[in-house]
Amino acid sequence: MFHNSKTKGHGSIRKNKVYGTIGILTLGTIAILSAHQGVAADEVKATKPTTPAPVAEASDTSLAAQSKAAATEAASSSTAAITTAKAETTAPAGAISTADTTTASATTTTESAATQPATAPVASTTPAATTATPETTPAPATTAKAEATTPAPAGAVSTSDPVATPVDRTEGSKVTVENQKLKDAISEANGYNIDVKQNQNDNIGTANNQVESDAKKDLANTLEETQATRIKTGVDAYKRDLKKAQANTGTPGYLSEVVSQGLKFEREPNAKLSITGTTEFGQKDMNNMSYEEYVKSGGTFANNPIPAFTTRLSAGGSRFVIPKIKSGQTITATYTGLQNSKYNGVSISKVTYEVTNLNPKTGIVGFAEKDPTRGIYTFYDINVPSRYKVVARFYDADGNVINFKKDNPAILALTSLTKTEPKTGKLAGLKHEESITDYNFRPVKITGSLVEKQTDGRLAANIVTDGIKDDYDDPNFYKMGIAGVAESGDSISFVMQRTTQWDRGYWLAITSKLPSRFTLVKPDLEYNLVEYNLAGNVLLDNYIQGTTTKLTNTQTVKNLRELLLVKTTQQHTKTESQQRMARSINMCHQLIIQQVKLN
């Protein structure tokens, strides 16, 4: 830390300000040398100031800060060396004119070009007098032509732009690491049509020098290799499952072809139901009844969507809201707040069921009170076909409808498609069949199931299912099911069709939980690249700018002397003013030597 202004005037520069003093001497000398091209121009054209090159400021102990703080104490020894001679020669195009820094009036209106750009360029058309004073000397300015056509010699330092303007240290480039092992793992996953989601880059901070940069690069590679291992583990597990699925396409209870499941829609007990398209909801529980039978038994409808219907058949038992639905009417059930469902790694937050009555008369439809995977009930007359169209759509967390893909489709489990024909009792000889028609998905048979595509296109059992228990946990339950594979589009649609002589109700679960003994599922994989910042050029005391090499006192003097020598070698002629400048350079060099010795 350097002392405040109260320490000024004590007659010496303290040891910890040595590099600040060196800085101000060097900057002053550079300003003089930059003026060698024309210190007494008859005419100086003012142009717009150039934009300062941003340089990050390390701390209050940086060269720029110490130079400014030590300016007052160093003025008695430095300003004499950097005062420009009065104009004697004609300035070439693009010359830089510097004001006399020894007068009060000049120092109160301008600052060194090394620390502040010109804010009020002044164009002068009057030749300068041979005894110019600060009041008549034009403000420092440069011409655009000189900047554009006069390249700086190697090692030279330009004073036309500020070199100590502080900027945010975060200004600088970013380095994004792409580890080869991670790239290979992602490539292998993609080869199996497994999507690997890329998340936002993980930024691990700023590297201020090469050592820190190397360390952050090593850390980034370690983090990405860890992700590569996780991805490879998931892919290896999928490869094992794929072989199992391929080997068992002919085994009862397995899908008859290899298809991976991209949909996870099995249980949502905390979903919230809302219904639109009707205001008439059944207020009384019932057995499976038609609309007419329900009304005749005392059932009423009101604008009060309560779960009046209770059943033990719907996947273990649940309650259903039962609105009446007129012929041609569409009612939409919306379930929000889904927590467990996904498609292809994307969370599903909402699902909607649109149900349309395709029958000629009014019927009743039932929606599960909370869990949408419990499915849909439909009720209609017996001895006539019952047909209700269902359209299901799934939405992501942003409310966007989800589109299905062929390489990772959504598979809907179509289960409990019963076909009965009792041989005894009061129902003996009466037939009942539940089927799916007019669907927009591709049906895939479960090996050993009684349900398959019939000649008219409907999905139904070939023979009666009387001997199979209508229970998901029953080992033979898969025999009443089939898989519906949705490979495109943003909806799954079908018609629930029932032909019966005795049962007025038809329940269909809507779930991804296939009744097959094995389901091939692709893993949910994701990754993020790792990046870090590189700080901008930082002026650090005692350090070579842009490197991490610390200078010794001897190296500091040597580098500064070389800088001065570069400037002097640019002189091609020796005028009287240039000789004075050479003497000033030598004085500055001697002062530098003295300050280093004091340190």
Radius of gyration: 43 Å
Bin the helical content.
10-25%
Structural class based on helices, strands and sheet pairing: alpha+beta
Mean pLDDT: 76
Q: Any idea of the CATH topology of the largest domain?
A: Major cell-surface adhesin PAc
Largest sheet: 9 strands, antiparallel
Total count of helical runs of at least 4 residues: 10
Name of the CATH first level of the largest domain: Mainly Beta
- Determine the CATH superfamily of the largest domain: Major cell-surface adhesin PAc
Give the CA-based shape: elongated
Domains, number: 3
Outline the low-pLDDT stretches. 1-18, 36-170, 538-573
How much of the sequence is in beta strands? Answer: 15-25%
Question: What's the CATH architecture of the largest domain?
Answer: Sandwich
The number of E-state strands comes to: 31
Distance between the termini: 15 Å
Q: Any descriptors?
A:
599 residues; alpha+beta; Major cell-surface adhesin PAc; nine-stranded antiparallel β-sheet; 10 helices; disordered N terminus
Which secondary structure elements does this structure contain, and how are they paired or packed?
Layout: H1 18-34, E1 56-57, H2 63-69, H3 71-82, H4 104-107, H5 144-149, E2 174-177, H6 180-191, E3 196-198, E4 202-207, H7 210-247, E5 260-261, E6 263-264, E7 272-276, E8 281-282, H8 291-296, E9 301-302, E10 309-311, E11 318-321, E12 324-325, E13 330-336, E14 342-343, E15 346-357, E16 363-368, E17 376-379, E18 386-396, E19 410-414, E20 419-420, E21 432-437, E22 442-444, E23 451-453, E24 459-461, E25 482-486, E26 492-500, E27 505-508, E28 520-521, E29 525-527, E30 530-534, E31 538-539, H9 553-569, H10 576-598
Parallel strand pairs: 1-31, 3-29, 4-30, 5-28
Antiparallel strand pairs: 2-30, 6-14, 7-13, 8-9, 10-11, 11-16, 12-16, 13-15, 14-15, 15-18, 16-17, 17-27, 18-26, 19-25, 20-21, 21-26, 22-25, 23-24
Helix pairs in contact: 1-2, 1-3, 1-9, 1-10, 3-10, 6-7, 9-10
